[in-house]
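3.2 Worked example (two chains)
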Amino acid sequence: MGKMDIVGNDKKYLVIISALVQELLPFFQKFQLERTEFEKGRTVWKGSFYGVPTILFSSGVGEKLGSYTVQTVVDKYPIRFAFLLGVAGGVAPSAAVGDVIIPQEIKSLHSDVAFPLDRSLLPMDLMRQFQNEVEKFPIRNGGTLLTVDRVFGPKEKQSIHDPGVMAVDMESYAWVQIVRKRAIPFLVIRGISDHWNSAVPPPLFSRNRGHRSVTGWENVQNLLNPLSWFARFRFRKDMGYAIQNYCKVVDYLIESGYPFH
């Protein structure tokens, strides 16, 4: 599906999807958005990005919740194009914190079916202009984004034997399944929030960590450990940097008329 398939229908929305609201924070800070509850407890934000009717929403974390939310939204609203955004954990040693990745395919840890990205939708000229005019951080086109079922630490990342995997996330495969089924053109853009050999700090209070339950004493130890506070501060900073970077890229693309002109 190329650009000509997207142009010419002004009644449909550009949609921007992430797992968490905070992954869209730069857009909330820049644009005036109207909050709309489309179903009990579920919200979208509507606005105009450079004259383009736009919907933003967070799907929730994980494939199951993300799949349900995205399906509900695409059933309710007519969509012209989808940006699928968020942070991701670096797997390739070359993927540094803050790098922006646009994978060439999406895979799942639990499926043999891979979803290739439509390369005709890649705005290569605009990407080069962005790096020349706006920012110098790396934008990596290619490689595989692997959707997994939990937050991966260094050991889990090193257990991935596919050399093409650039990063891991927890939602993209489910999102792509749905938008492909509805013939909605899309672009997956992720920002690297943690390096291949760094661990994401656990939340202060949690019931589960990976596939095991967490005791109350473990939560207390986590709360009292100064190193856990430092790790949490560092991760929040790195995550914020990744979010700022991919949002700058998407903002530049939309302002430049992509993908509708």
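3.2.1 Second chain
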Amino acid sequence: MGLLSSGVRVEVRIHATPEQVWAAIEDVTTHTSWMKDAVEIRHTSKEQHSVGATFDCDTRIGPFRMTDRMVITEWLPAKLMSVRHAGIVTGTGTFMLAADGDMTVFSWREHLRFPWRFGGPIGSVVAKPIFVALWRGNLQRLKQRVEQDAHSTVGAAVADETTLDAGERQRPSRAPRVLAMAFLVSGILHFVSPGPFAGIIPRWVPRPTEAVYLSGGAELVCAAGLWRRARWSAYVSTALLILVFPANLQMAWDFQGDSQRSAAAKAATWLRLPLQAPLIWMALRARR
């Protein structure tokens, strides 16, 4: 099993009391209204609002679907709700509410274990940045919902924020399409000229040529999704960029031992490595 040993923690500050926030999350079946990865939630026990209550959550992240079975392990109204994941992916999750003046700090913590079918430790490494981005977006949606319900008259500050959000929606980021073009060109080259790509596949990866074709196909799929700004493409593209990073490391390492490579070329391979971060940022812009 692979464990997100450091866990995942995201939080948001909400202009509402802990009681108002709790009212929005107490019924777990309503979480689908602000959790984009939750398709449907069903109670599987008679008790629904206390320790021992159970429920199933049909989850979808990009092309991946599964049913997450959960058991409530802690229940302190307006303070704490914890669950134990008992399905394919196991672990624990906690919602914590803390008053801070006229606001509530909502913290979400998860410690998840991935089975080998989901990549075990490698799957957990790939999944962590995806989950962080996904759950931050979930909390922003919860914040908007709670604040709209808590305040019948929207203040000027909230109105300005709403106007800004609407403006951002009207002017979608160009970043996903720029990355889509890069993926398109790279994906085609994987099929037209696989040799150079096969040469940088890490030695521990079997069948390097097949790996080149597979990654090239994945880049073309991501290019199509990013061009349409499909939400799933943000997370799948992020996972792909993380998965291919070892090839960039292999290329940098190989160049250092090649006497025919110039010092500038060797330096460029190392300088290329940090660029993976802005590429991931560009991919995640597709989820907006």
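3.3 Remarks
Residues 120-150 form the longest helix (31 residues).
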